[in-house]
Amino acid sequence: MTKLTRWWMALSGAAVALAALVGCDARRLERLQVGVSIEADVRREFGEPAAVLPEADGARIFEYPRQPEGQENWFLTIGPDGKLREVRQALTPANFARVTAGMDQAQLRRLLGRPAATAVYELKREQVWDWRYADAGQARLFSVTFDMNGRVVSTASRDDPRYEHGGPSGR
Question: How far is CA 32 from the centre of its chain?
């Protein structure tokens, strides 16, 4: 078996695993009901959240990122009454449009969730965070560039380079 064949097989396996993960989330969400499901139901379906973000009104947002390989970051809000209040997919063009110059990293993390990748460019005095997402079925990458003070200076979207020339899912 050639090195290229092994690489394509590994890539295909990763695509199948990713598709299964996306399907699993859909099934998990179908079993939850806003206003009815309680925190224990959310934890049973999704497990322990990657982060719990407190809200001023006593609600808590449970973060379930699917980065670095997935294209979604889920936020499930548990109200002060212990019931599921909201289910939100954070990686959307509408949320990307809310990212503005001067926003700090904590604000961005709360808006979009954990990034797929981060990189520091010392010579440029910049840091870049990337999120993988899907836009109308197209695999995309949303990037935010920060200055060395952790403030947003620019954003960009482009095709996810992993999917060029057929990529993991054969697109």
Answer: 20
Contact (Cβ atoms closer than 8 angstroms) between residue 116 and residue 123:
no
Whose tokens are 């670095």? That residue is 68
HEC letters along the chain: CCHHHHHHHHHHHHHHHHHHHHHHHHHHHHCCCCCCCEHHHHHHHHCCCCEEEECCCCCEEEEEECCCCCCCEEEEEECCCCEEEEEEECCCHHHHHCCCCCCEHHHHHHHHCCCCEEEEECCCCEEEEEEEEEECCEEEEEEEEEECCCEEEEEEEEECHHHHHHCCCCC
pLDDT 10s digits, 34-72: 999 999 999 999 999 999 999 999 999 999 999 999 999
Q: Is the C-alpha dihedral spanning 70, 117, 115, 144 positive or negative?
A: negative
84: tokens are: 């599921």
At 83-132, the pLDDT tens digits run 999 999 999 999 999 999 999 999 999 999 999 999 999 999 999 999 99
Angle CA 28–30–36, to nearest 5: 100
- The residue written with tokens 């920060």 in the block is 146
